[in-house]
Every structure is written in C-alpha cells, then in structure tokens.
Design a protein that fits this description.
The complex is a heterodimer of chains A (576) and B (284).
Chain A: H1 2-22, H2 24-50, H3 58-74, H4 81-106, H5 112-131, H6 133-136, H7 154-177, H8 179-195, H9 201-227, H10 237-250, H11 257-272, H12 279-293, H13 300-310, E1 319-320, E2 332-341, E3 344-354, E4 358-363, H14 370-377, E5 385-390, E6 393-394, H15 400-405, E7 408-411, H16 423-432, E8 449-450, H17 452-460, H18 476-489, E9 494-498, H19 506-523, E10 526-530, H20 534-540, E11 543-548, E12 551-556, H21 558-563, H22 565-572
Parallel strand pairs in A: 1-8, 4-10, 4-11, 7-9, 9-10
Antiparallel strand pairs in A: 2-3, 2-5, 5-6, 11-12
Helix pairs in contact in A: 1-2, 1-7, 2-7, 2-9, 2-10, 2-11, 3-4, 3-5, 3-9, 4-9, 7-9, 8-9, 8-16, 10-11, 16-18
Chain B: H1 3-33, H2 40-57, H3 64-82, H4 91-113, E1 127-130, E2 133-136, H5 137-159, H6 161-171, H7 173-178, H8 183-205, H9 215-230, H10 235-256, H11 258-275
Antiparallel strand pairs in B: 1-2
Classes of the chains: A alpha/beta (576), B mainly alpha (284).
C-alpha cells in the first residue's frame, strides 16, 4: 500500500509541475489527452488483461459526458452535483456491465461477437445523440457547459484532471496486480480451463468491461466541463478506434502503455494530421505492426526495466489454509444419460453410481464415450436425456463453473494450462478457484495463500518451485504434472482425471500414481480415472467401470472384470 | 395482382438480395477459413470507388466489374500473402489485423478522394414492367445478377473438383495437405474470392448509395448480423439471415425511424446469441 501511495504522489507532483514547465495553454491541451488516457486505461483492462476487444469504447465516454453536461447545465452550483457527477461516471459502467453479461453469457468466447456488438452499440449511441436533438443538441452538440463549481478558468481544471488520472492509474495498478488481474489474464489464455476451476468467467469478463465503462465514464464526466461542448462524435466510431490504436501502440498489456499511447500518439496526431498527409495512414500501419510483433507496445520494454530496478515482489507472511478435502464424500449418480451428435450416439443410456470414496478406473475401447462422460458430468456438454445427480441434487444442465463449485475437479487429456502465466500464477489460479470471494479477488492477501497440498506437491515435483517460469516453457510431462497439481489444489471432492499419465516417462508415471494414491488415502477422496494402461489400472483401481458404445458394460473389482467374458469380447474381439 | 403488394414484395426481395450480396464475401471467408475479415466492408467500398473511377473516366459501367475485381484480387492476394496467412490459427489476431486493415484502406481512399461523398449516375435509367408494375431497371438487374452469382457459386462449389478440395481443406487441413492438396494456395484463393465478392457488391450497389470512405462500416455490421442470425455455412442459412435482418431493419425503420431499426437489428442479434448461438441453420 505504501509503495503505491509513494509512487502515486511522485506521479502527481510531476503532473502538477507541468503547467509551470510547459505553460498553461499546453497543459490545458494535454489535459484533454489525460482524459482520453483514462478511457484508454479501460481499453487496456479489457483487451490487455481479460483478452476481449472493445471496438466501441468511446460510447461510455460519450454517455458520461452527456450526463455530466446535463447535470452541470441544469444543476449549476447545486449541491446535487455531488451526487449527479459520480452517478454520471457510474452509469456508463453499469451499462457496460449489463452489456458484458448479456453477450458473454450468451457466447463464452471472446471472438468477433463481443467486438462487433460493442462497435454496433457505439454507432447506435452516436445515432441517438445525433437524432435526439431536443435533449442532446443534435449534431452540433450540447454546448455552453459550465466548468465545475469553484473551478473557474481552464487552468484550475487541469489539476483536477491530473489528480483523477493519477488516481485512475493507481486503481488500475492495484487491480491488475491483485488476484482478479491474474484471473483476467488466465481467462485471456484459456477461458475454458478456468470455468472448470469454478470461475464464472462470463461474470468476471463483464466485470472487467464494467470497470472499463466506469473509467470511460469518469473521463466523460470531466470532458464536459473541460471542453464546454459535447458532440455525438465523442461517442462514435473514430474516437473508439483511436482509443484502441493508442492502447495498442502504447502497450496493451502494460499499466502505463494505454496512458503513454493516448498522450503521445493522440497529441502527435492532433499536431501532425494536417502537416503530414499520410500521417493517419502511418498510424494505421503502425497499429498492424504493433499488434503482430509488439504486443507490449512502446511501454513494454521500459516498464519491465523499471520493474526490475524498482519493482518489489509483493511479499508477506504465507497464510496456510485449512484443507477442506474429504469433508463429505460425494454421491454421484448418472441415470440413463444419452447424448448424440448427428446420427452418432456418443452416450447411450449411460447409468452408474459412485457412493464410496476410492479410485475408480473408467476403461473401454476408443470411442466408448469415456471423455464424453466427463464432459457430461462437468457441464461441458449437455446430455439430451437422463439425469446426473450429485448428493441428491440434479446437476444436469449446470454450467461448468457451477459444477466445479460443487466440488468436482477435472484434468484434461491434453494438458490444459495457462501457457503465458507463470507456474505460481497457474497454481494460485487453481488454489483460488472456489475459495476466493469477489472481495478477495481485489485484495492482496490471497497472493500468500497456500495449503498442505501445495507444500507437498512442491516437494514431490521440485520444478513447481520455479515460480516465475512461464508455464509454456515446461516439458510435456511437466505440463501434465502441473495440470494435475492444479486440479488437486482446487481440492475437489470428486476428481476426474483423463489419462493423467499419457506421455509421461515411467519415472514420472510412478510419481503421478504415487500422488494420486496419496490424495486418495490422505483425504479419503473419490477419484475417477480414465486409463488405457491395464497394468496401471490393476495397480490403483478399487473399482473398474468398463464402458462400451456409450454405456456401462461392467462394474466391479479388477479380478471380476478380468474374468468377465463380455469385457474380453470387447477388448479381444472373440467370445471365450 | 394488387400493385402495392407487388411493389412491397419487390422491395423486400431487393432488400434481401442486396444484403445477400453484401454478406457473401464475408461468409465465404469466415465460413471456410474461420477468418472474420473486419475489412470486408472496406472491400465493398473499394469496389464502389472503382466503379466511381470508371464512370468518372467515361468508361461504360460494365467495365467497372472487371476493373473492381482486378483491384480487389490484387489487394486480396497482397493482404493474404503478407498478413492473413500467418494468422489462420490465431482468430483473435486476425480480428485485430483486419480491423487495422479496414482503417488503412479507408485512409488510402480518403487520401485520394477526400472525406466527402461521391454519387454515381444510374447506368441503366428507366424502369421495366414486373407483373404489370413499373420497377427501376437497374435495381431489377442487381437482383438478377445477385441471384445468378449465388447460384453459379453454389453449383460450382457443389460440383467442381476445387469445391471438393475446399471442403477437404475445411474439414481437415492436415489430411488435405497429406493427400496432395495445396492447402496454402487454396486458402489464398478462397480469401481472394471473398474479397472479390465484396468488390462486386460495391460495384453493384455504388449507383444506389452514397459512396464515401466510411460506407464499409454499416456493411460489415449488417453482414455480421446476417451471419449471427442465419448461421454460417449454408446458402439457406444466409438467405434466412438476410431475410430476418433485412425484414426487421426495413419494417422497424419505416415504422419508428432509422435509429429504432438499427436498435431492432442489434436486439435481434443479441437475442440470437442467447437462443440460437449457431444461427437459424448451421452446418453441423
């Protein structure tokens, strides 16, 4: 906290000194780009952190500015402004949050859908602002907006803008270093994985969009008195596009990138647009270049240097969390679950029940529906018939994160990790899933959380201690182990492992099997493993479930299954 | 027949067919290559400006078609070769790069022709009789060409060897490559076909609309909504998407004004995201 305050005060003093250095007029000009950079910070959160593309971000600036303009004109010098202006900043954020929920809930991916819908919304805002002449003043805009009460003259407003910019940077710096920032970056890497840790990613992305809306709103609220005039263009396409370009060029993944981009490219454009005819062409080309080759923009390199020199790793006393595993062993029941895609029956009246803790091996020839069974249990696909119950509650039709929150964890066949996040961030993301409340995500304390599983895993697999190594640099086997560790840290009551030893060396396999056994015995948990290797199955299985053509062929102990003639028939192809 | 009914029917068919032409290039590129080309609207704009150039030179309007196709093909090749081909597995980056491209193309046109709008004269003035009602000849021709080009494309895709190769590429690029299909070339040609259809739409619509640098913006949005509603991959899906979007837009705009029409379309698109995320008719 102290560090934050210290840096913010230095920044603020620097900004306050500018009018003396540059003269009042230039400071006033810069003030406009300070406002834009507040909005650009929001673009940075959406695009650089959470990984979705807001193509119409200016609409929030516009809405904030119109609301602020009305308030200042109609309630000049009234104490109501103390209420109205903050509301004018928050309303765009609320609108953004609702839009985010609507779109992300409908479509989990961060692809073109969200981007184009925000673009359409900003054009819609532009049209409303242009056509609703009685209220907005139409194309010519809403003019004659007085300054903030008590701040006559444009010089004094500069200090307010500079202060608000500093606060905004401070808040964003805090947020992106807090757990929520890690989670957002995780979402941008591998959203699906996070839903299986119990994160409601649609909500968290909507939250990011909402915060960016507030930042846009704040910029708009100050824009109205700063410029004295609000026109539809403020909400429209061009400014939206510029915000995106500034953020990209400055460095979307960095804290200061959007700010530097907005101030540098923005003010240069204003100066050079008319001097160099192909200036905007150059900016467009620069944008493409930066997107492809320089995701950290111009602020990336200096910021990393700065962090190496001045940055301090957040450190505090580790908080050891109580282990919750094994509190109640799950009762899972699948009753006549069916799933077909086209004419192919993937699951065909699949029914089985697991009520006792233990290791259950799910075996069966290729295409028997093993992975699809996992998909059905975890809500990744919806079964067309039948029901899935967990402890007398029907979980069929639940979304993946709701299933995960009820204590079902999953490891995928192909290791599914967060490649560009560090090992420790990967592990933390898993540890926080299902434990962090929304408030926790904005606090720094979860950064120090650990539990006995975490400590033990690090002893078993020493590579997990290399905290700052990006997960993508791990070998295939290590990635498998990392994902296994992640699914254990979520402390699921029921753990689904899809070929956890695939592609591992025999040494690694032994360690992984040992870990699974340890989890089984120490925490008395229920583990369902898909496995092809029969030696392994014999070794670890308490019970074996044999699947064939989307249904259960046999359930029983290893010995019984080995004797079962139907199983032999399926595997060997002859009846004995 | 009731003259008003005929006019209304013709207008609706016109609305849907033009929408169809607008969306076709985008649908090809998105459906087959999974590339959401945000610069699609700008290819339509380039086509329209090419038509303007031809008319300005005093050439016959029909010349605009080969000229626009030529320019769009060259641009398409260049863009695919320098940018898109590196990005087939990175959909998010494609989105950004094509968005940047749309900006670039707009700026180039602005540099040459300025921000103002150009209007073209109608190459085929006058009207013809349709079921006893006079209807503008050029609009009628646009409808015919639109329907014809879609039919030709459809038959060609279903019957030709290249069509089969494209299908193989879409289903499984690695396997297609393994059996000797030159997937890289095929993808490039597919992209170019998409940009050419964009330019063709631009030529066809130029005399009926305001030609200006920002005209592509509306086109990309409407095209996208058609894809959302109709679903990617089938002609029938595209037609139903064009029908719904075109219908909603014209009906709501006529009743409550342009802004409401716009809002209505947006609402429909979001509703479809929720209720039918794969569109009305999807391939799978």
């Amino acid at each position: 906290m102290g560090l934050f305050l210290g840096r913010s005060i230095i920044l603020l003093l620097g900004l306050f000194a500018l009018p003396t250095l540059l003269g009042d007029f230039w400071a006033y000009q810069l003030g406009l780009y300070f406002l834009y950079s507040i909005a650009a910070l929001g673009v940075g959160i959406c695009w650089g952190q959470a990984g979705f593309l807001p193509l119409g971000q200016a609409m929030f600036l516009g809405i904030g500015a119109y609301l602020s303009g009305f308030s200042l004109i109609h309630f000049q010098d009234s104490f109501l402004l103390l209420l109205l202006l903050p509301a004018a900043a928050l309303i765009p954020g609320f609108i953004a949050f609702v839009i985010g929920l609507l779109v992300f809930r409908g479509h989990l991916e961060s692809g073109p859908f969200f981007a184009l819908i925000t673009l359409a919304l900003s054009l819609l805002t532009f049209q409303i602002a242009t056509n609703w002449v009685d209220v907005t003043g139409g194309f010519n805009g809403l003019g004659g907006i007085p300054s903030l009460p008590g701040l006559e003259g444009f010089e004094s407003l500069y200090y307010v803008v500079a202060a608000v910019l500093t606060i905004s940077i401070g808040v964003v710096a805090w947020i992106i270093k807090a757990p929520i920032g890690v989670i957002w970056r995780g979402i941008s890497e591998n959203e699906k994985r996070l839903t299986f840790f119990g994160y409601d990613t649609a909500f968290l992305k909507a939250l990011a969009f909402g915060i960016s809306g507030v930042l846009g709103g704040v910029a708009g609220v100050l824009y109205a008195p700063h410029q004295g005039l609000v026109t539809p263009n403020l909400a429209g396409f061009i400014l939206s596009a510029e915000l995106l370009i500034w953020t990209a060029v400055g460095g979307r993944k960095t804290l200061f990138g959007p700010v530097i981009g907005a101030i540098l490219v923005g003010s240069l454009t204003a100066e050079l647009r008319d001097v160099i005819p192909i200036w905007e062409l150059m900016v467009a080309a620069l944008f493409i270049f930066v997107v492809l080759f320089l995701p950290d923009g111009i602020a990336g390199w200096p910021e990393r240097l700065f962090q190496r020199v001045l940055g301090r790793r957040f450190s505090g006393d580790e908080v050891n969390l109580a282990v919750k595993i094994g509190q109640k062993s799950p009762e899972l029941e699948l009753a006549s679950c069916s799933l077909s895609i086209g004419t192919v029956d993937i699951l065909n009246q699949l029914s089985f029940r697991i009520a006792q803790p233990g290791i259950y091996c799910l075996i069966g020839p290729n295409g028997a529906g093993k992975t699809s069974t996992f998909n059905a249990i975890t809500g990744a696909v919806k079964t067309q018939a039948g029901s899935i119950n967990l402890d007398d509650e029907s979980i069929s039709g639940f979304q993946s994160h709701d299933v995960a929150m009820r204590g079902i964890g999953r490891k995928f066949q192909v290791p599914s990790i967060l490649p560009n996040l560090t090992i420790s961030e990967n592990l933390r993301t898993a540890l926080w899933g299902g434990r962090c409340s929304l408030m926790d995500l904005f606090h720094y304390t979860p950064l120090n959380w650990t539990n006995t599983i975490n400590t033990d895993l690090k002893e078993r697999f020493p590579f997990l201690i290399e905290e700052n190594k990006p997960a993508k640099e791990l070998s295939h086997g290590e990635k498998q182990v990392l994902e296994l560790s992640m699914s254990l840290l979520g402390e699921p009551r029921l753990l689904l492992l899809d070929e956890p030893c695939a592609g591992l060396s025999s040494e690694e396999t032994d360690k992984v099997i040992d870990t699974i056994r340890w989890i089984r015995s120490t925490f008395d948990s229920t583990i369902l493993v898909i496995e092809h290797d029969m030696t392994l199955v014999k070794d670890i299985a308490d019970q074996v479930i044999v699947m064939h053509q989307g249904a259960v062929l046999a359930i029983g102990g290893v010995k019984d299954i080995q004797k079962d003639s139907r199983v032999r028939e399926v595997y060997v192809g002859v009846s004995i | 027949m009731d003259p008003i009914a005929v006019t209304i029917a013709l207008n609706i068919i016109y609305e849907i067919t033009t929408l169809f032409v607008i969306v076709l290039g985008l649908a090809i590129v998105f459906g087959l290559l999974k590339v959401m080309n945000l610069a699609h609207g700008e290819f339509i704009m380039v086509g329209a400006y090419a038509a303007y150039f031809c008319q300005d030179q005093g050439w016959p309007y029909i010349m605009a078609i080969p000229f626009a196709l030529f320019i769009a093909a060259i641009l398409g090749y260049l863009i695919e070769f320098t940018l898109i081909r590196h990005l087939y597995r990175r959909p998010f980056d494609t989105l950004l790069v094509t968005w940047g491209l749309s900006f670039l193309l707009r700026e180039v046109i602005e540099l040459v022709y300025g921000k103002g709008f150009q209007s073209l004269s109608n190459p085929i003035p006058g009207s013809i009789d349709v079921l006893g009602e006079p209807y503008p000849s050029y609009r009628a021709l646009v409808m015919v060409i639109a329907i014809l080009s879609v039919l030709v494309l459809w038959v060609w895709y279903r019957r030709s060897l290249t069509g089969a190769r494209v299908k193989a590429m879409v289903e499984n690029p690695e396997l297609a490559r393994a059996v000797g299909i030159r997937v890289d070339n095929l993808a490039r040609h597919t992209f170019v076909v998409g940009t050419c259809f964009g330019a063709l739409a631009g030529v066809m619509l130029a005399p009926l609309t305001r030609v200006e640098p920002f005209m592509g913006l509306d086109y990309i949005l409407t095209s996208f909504f058609v894809l959302v509603v109709g679903g990617v991959g089938t002609i029938l899906g595209l037609s139903s998407g064009a029908g719904v979007i075109g219908g909603v837009q014209s009906v709501v705009s006529n009743l409550f004004g342009e802004t409401s029409g716009y809002f209505g379309v947006l609402l429909i698109a979001i509703l479809f995201l929720w209720l039918k995320p794969n569109g009305l008719i999807s391939r799978s």
